[in-house]
Fold this protein.
Amino acid sequence: MKKKLLSAVMLCALGVVGCGEEDPVDPPAKPKLDSQANILAFLDGKTLLMQGENIPSHPNGFSEDIDYGPYSQCYQKVTMTVGGGSFTVDSIPGTIENGQCNHELAKNPLKFTSTAVLIENVAADGSCFDVTFTFPGGLVQEGRGGFSADQKSLNLELFFKDQATGSRCANGAVGTAGTVTLGGKAFTGNAVQKYAIQ
């Protein structure tokens, strides 16, 4: 009887060990983000969200605390959806009060859809690339972008067309201090928009 019980225990023990072992599964390979086609394919169908601390002090190179009328850069949040190679940008502006951007006090939302997107000079890992967004009405943003190492966020350092120099990857990585000249003066603000990829 003892031998039968011992055999049963041994079989159970072996069964537990055996059941717990599986062939190791390799994690899925990260998408290659080394070209415009691959970057747009990776982002297609995704939503990019910038809010809170991810909003820079100087979106597009202009202080969020200065009232430029319809061109003010105070935001509550910005959402971009990507599809078919174009970016639809939904912005909810904040309100500038007493020389300070109040992110919580929202204004009427704004919506733009790109008519063209040009991505060039892409690093092999997608950590830096030159980007130009063209929108209706002649609005053009240009600068540099890059993905985080885990590919969960996209950083865009953008300026309005022909207003900045030194804002391309040849001048340094996204957000590199001291490389950008804006309006003929050294730019010392933070223009890096940080988007969570959802």
User: Anything to note?
Assistant: Helices lie at 2-20, 36-43. The mean pLDDT is 90. The longest helix spans residues 2-20.
